[in-house]
Amino acid sequence: MEFITSENIILIGSTLLIAGVLIGKSSYRFGLPLLLIFLLVGMGFGSDGLGIQFSDMGTAQFIGMIALCIILFSGGLDTKISSIKPVILPGLILSTVGVLLTALLTGLFIWWLSGMSWTNIHFAFLPSLLLAATMSSTDSASVFGILGSQKVGLKNNLRPMLELESGSNDPMAYMLTIILIQALTVNGSLSAGDIALELVLQFGVGIAGGFIMGKFTLWLISMYRRFGRKSTTQEDPSQAVSMISILIIGCVFFTFAITTDLSGNGYLAVYISGIVIGNAGLQSHKSITKFIGGMTWLAQIVVFLMLGLLVNPHEMLDVAAVSLLIGVFMILVGRPLSVMLSLAPLHKISLRSKAFISWVGLRGAVPIIFATYPVVADVEGAGQIFNIVFFVTLLSLLIQGTTVISSARKLKLVDDDSEEDDDFGIELPDELQSTLYSVNLTADKLAAGNTLRDMHLPAGSLVMMIKRGSRYIVPNGSVKLKCGDTLLIIQEEE
User: Fold this and answer.
1) In Å, how far are 152, 266, 292, 400 from 237, measured between CA atoms?
2) Residue 461: CB partners within 8 Å, gap ≥ 6?
3) Do residues 401 and 142 lie in contact, with contact meaning Cβ atoms separated by under 8 Å?
4) 154 has which bridge partners?
5) In contact, 107 and 133? CB cutoff 8 Å
6) With left for phi above 0 and alpha for psi between -120 and 50, is residue 313 left, alpha or beta?
7) Residue 260 neighbours by CB distance under 10 Å
8) Which of the chain's termini has less CB crowding within 10 Å, N or C?
């Protein structure tokens, strides 16, 4: 009886998804990052767990590439230019110079560690840099997932800065990884001119391709809507939103492919196109964003489950000691030192903010996906590189991922007065010239009184609903407001 059949593949895949979602629910109880749970579920079902065999690095790389395109595009779609304007400079410095310094510092440490007689890794300088390069970027899926799930405001524009960095630093790590693999597999040398040309092409074509394709996608959407208006039979609005969302997903992959074929960085291009589309005032924006958001979660779950299946935990035990040293170095020395050095000219960013940025150097799916590239390219020692990257990722998610918000509180960077993005699941019709926003009530905001008439809202504003814990209250004159209540407010646009 043949075990590998279409039905069994579907059975195993669906079982993994269901188990991951149900077990992932416990992450909120234990304070673990949700994506770490999916990674552990994949490991539990893998070769050293329930025995599912999956070792195809090429397939894993392809699936990871598709997932990363959706994740980065979704991050760009949710990025508001108004929120990142004040932090564009530090965000871009962190995503370029910061990544380069992290790779260099960590690479030098790995090279030094390889020279010790008591270690079981023996990497030359270039393989040491390659190992460091695969881990040099913060993971967008992890950062977006943790910051997005925590309804906590951060002072000093830290959240948009961290999201901008994590969304735009993968291209730098990718380029370093590819350049070092080429150097190791071709002639073992690096040409400064070739590296400079590669960086210019990757960044220049990536940015231009992302911007042009973002505008082209918007044109396709408007053309689709024009066709619908000219039709004698009106299309169902929900169907139109679904079709446009699918059109956008198609354009995301087209953007990645065409930019990569033109020697640009496809990951950067899809992120830029997401920003262009997300800030264009797209009709039915919220419904499209929710569709893309669901696709993003599916992509993240699939890639983390797959990567969990891919690793053999018993092989990680062989490099556990050195992986622990490398991970601790990255968390306590490499990342903090690269942040401090790269942001040193920006005196307006406080030391506490820099310390928090250093701590949110989360590793995740991206480093593991990049670690498959040396394996596919048959680089010497690629197996050790993959296992070390996986171990360091687990360590980062376990230590840093569980302490992001608590570290922000200890550094006094939590902004309790910030307006939340919680829209209570309500979406306004596009023709209604109004916006929704929510306000979390604190003791200071209730100092003038605890009724709606004491709130002194701007003209043209109306409180639609009050959220108190898990209850939703329809506002009226007799309701007494309490600390922790969230007000859903509709504001008439001028």
Assistant:
1) 34, 32, 17, 43
2) 489, 490, 491, 492
3) yes
4) 414
5) yes
6) alpha
7) 18
8) N
